[in-house]
Amino acid sequence: MHLLYETESTLTDILQEEGYDINDPKLQRVIVRVVAKENEFQDKVKDRVDSVYQHLLNDSVDGFDVVALASSDPYDPDHRLIFRNMALRELFPDDKLYLTHEELSARFSYSTEEESRKLTNEAIKALLTSGYYKSDRRVTMDNIERHYVTTLQLSTISGQLIMTRQYRDVTEERLKEREITEQKELLRNILETLPGGVSHVDEEGTHLYVSPQVKEIFGSDTWVDVGTHAFDAFDFDSKGYMIEQANNLKDGGTYHALLAAKREDGSNFPLEIHVNKFKNQETDKYEYITYISDAREKVKQEKILKERTSLYEALLDHSFLGIDISEVKIEPHLGVVKMDVILRNGGAEKVFGPIREYKTEDLAKEASKILGQDKSTWGSQFKEFIENGIKLLEFDSEDIWGNQIKVRGIFRHIEVDDKSFLVRILDDITEESKRKKIISDQLVALKERQVQLEKYIESNLQLENFAYIASHDLKAPLRTVLSFSQLIKQSSYELLDDKDKEFLDIVINSSTNMMSLIEDLLTFSRVNTQKIKLDEIKLADLRATINIDLTDTIEGCSGQITWEGFDDSVMSADKTKMIQLFENLIRNALKFVKPGEQPCVHISHKENDRHHRFEIKDNGIGIPDRHLEKIFGIFEKLHSKDIYEGTGLGLAICAKIVEQHFGQIEVASEVGQGSTFSFTIAKNL
User: Fold this and answer.
1) Which pTM does this prediction carry?
2) How many CB atoms lie within 10 A of CB 166?
3) Residue 327 forms beta bridges with which residues?
4) Which in 6, 132, 192, 593 has the greatest CB count within 10 A?
5) DSSP letter string over 375-427?
6) Other C-beta atoms lying within 10 Å of the C-beta of residue 544
7) Is 478 exposed, middle or buried (0-12, 13-18, 19+ CB in 10 A)?
8) SS3 of 149, please?
9) Helix or strand (DSSP H, E) at 458
10) Is 618 helix (H, G, I), strand (E, B) or coil?
11) pLDDT tens across 368-403, in order?
């Protein structure tokens, strides 16, 4: 039996109350022995309890320590560390108190010194006012970000001010919370950027989540929202269908439907809906995820498609042309070996007869009749047609009544989704052929009249007519002469004597020069006759295009080109003709320089309210004053071809382009010093 008495006096008082004589020497000896035994027992119990607490605190995953405070001043040197468990020694490995801002900052990295001081002062203030402080801090230790929940508590024991601190590492929890938050945010962003709307509905049909797109589709922020009933937004028939489908769905099942949805004002509109059913593991109840999209445009397009399909079918049935579409099977070495007709209108039936099953021999017979080939070679010939994709044919045939007809056909091979189709469009040209015969006879008579009319053509034809004649009456024979001359030179040049070689070279050079002249005339004619097509041109883009086009020319002569004022300006002009204008002038500037001298060209741009003004300045050979007024004329060439190549039409083309843009072009030059070509382009074209 243990008598749990704290002091001897307590035991003495109890014995007196029970009537014992406490002055009895024997009783006093018993009292002394009992108290001694009890004190010995209490000391053992205390030591055991202290040992248990020590083990519990040291083995705890939370950091824990006890500090005896001499005062409320964090810098007081009489503060003492009483106890610090193993977990906290991982953070505070030495016996420092870590009460001050400087000590904490040396161990942890806060974002700023100001934040560190603020947190320390906040903790001291809370402890002095309430005796308790708790914070959730994110710190960096050894370059690793950690999260700690810190608890500080003040208490007084036997007159001594004691502070207990507890550090709990919640890094894993915070990282998981952050990951969950980021995943939720990502999911929400995905849901709110989908083209359609998404909603989450419980087993009773109540909305648990509604994306902004759903509200936009229904045209209301309150009609369909969290807490509203999903089925209320549909008409009676659609509501019944949805309830039936939802009840019939299995876990993980889906259904898709086009339903009549209802707005808050009672008006209906078509809605396309996809519903997925799943079981919530936490509530053990079924829930639904729905994806909806406004189907008004889809219904409208389907209606248009249906109408157009009907129109196309009517056009096919009543077309004057025969139209036949077949799915074909193609073997690599045989060509078409099977053909299933899937559409044939009346015009095609007139040639091929009604739709029927085609066999290989039928294909051979039909191909030989249409393509005019021997049956033994039709396979390879038809394969060649399939590879080319399209073939135009005219062939003689018989209609279903046995009449001889002439047919023009377009045969086209197309592939759709790994399937091959043969599309045949046929036109009965029997009457047209007869009319062509009549027209041909009339053309013979007209040709005779034409010879007579040509005698009356005046010599001052417009340049356009001359260019037309040059392109059709001069280029063809000139090309023939040039081609045969070059062939002779390639095959027999070494067999000729020197005089014949000289004659042949003269013919080739003269023909080449004449061809260049004709081409330049045609270019001038096109510039003169074609209307300008206005574009909004960024001068920076124009500069880039010209630099690319002239790369070879610039590198070939080691030329240098600089630009000024082409960065931010925009002008309205014909882009193609502007490129032609600049490149003609720049090529001239690069070409007409002294032998061995590096061409340098500077191009500048300025503008005012009425026009854009451009200057192209070079360091070339210059132009004599007597030629300045006529250099923009046709065929005005100042140098022989053996010195500088050209036909004399380049500047005439430039002048015509500037004229079409209601501008002016002029040149200032000094022989041996270079030339400056200036031109303007009107702004109000």
Assistant:
1) 0.36
2) 19
3) 340, 421
4) 593
5) GGGHHHHHHHHHHH-EEEEEEEEE-TTS-EEEEEEEEEEEEETTEEEEEEEEE
6) 12
7) middle
8) strand
9) none
10) strand
11) 555 555 555 555 556 666 667 777 777 777 777 778
